[in-house]
Amino acid sequence: MPTPEQWTALEQAARDAARLAYVPYSRFAVGAAVLTRDGRLFPGCNIENAAYGVTNCAERTAVFSARINGGMDEIVAVCIYTPTATPTPPCGACRQVLNEFGPAMAVRAICDGPDHIDTTLEALLPGAFGPRNLYAAAADH
């Protein structure tokens, strides 16, 4: 579980990342930041495309940023910022990608309003399929 200082840093990084979002279609700038077990933080923003199916969410951008920058020590937390009055949790696709790199991670969603969501990925994606399943299947054979 992140320290209060780490949560503060994650929240600020997520807000800062949202300012870099490329959102010419939705105008819905989302920022995210992930924290790895070794204490490194990686931000991400959503990047839209005219072919909506290839749009990338902020959470996935943060995960991919961590991977390309050598931060794939287990992800222990993610913070998502949305420019809304109430917090927005990650979409299903992001939940699945996050599960790949930190199935037990803490999740915080923040917004422009006073509310926030504090939960876990396990609560958001119960019964998830991921690396644990593959390793267990390999061990059985």
C-alpha termini separation: 35 Å
Mean pLDDT: 92
| CATH homologous superfamily identity | Cytidine Deaminase, domain 2
Note the quaternary state here: single chain
What is the name of the CATH architecture?
3-Layer(aba) Sandwich
The CATH topology label is Cytidine Deaminase, domain 2
What is Rg? 15 Å
Number of extended strands? 5
Strand content: 15-25%
Q: What is the string of SSEs from the N terminus onward?
A: HEEHEHEEHH
Shape verdict: globular
Largest sheet properties: 5 strands, mixed
Query: How does the helix and strand content classify structurally?
Result: alpha+beta
CATH class: Alpha Beta
- Structurally, the number of domains stands at 1
User: Unreliable runs, pLDDT <50, ≥5 residues?
Assistant: none
Strand order of the largest sheet: 2-1-3-4-5
Number of helices: 5
Helix content: 25-40%
Describe it for me?
The protein has 141 residues and is of the alpha+beta class. It has a single domain, classed as Cytidine Deaminase, domain 2 (3-Layer(aba) Sandwich), CATH 3.40.140. The protein is 35% helix and 20% strand. It is built from five helices and five strands; from the N terminus they run H-E-E-H-E-H-E-E-H-H. Strand 1 and strand 2 form a beta hairpin.
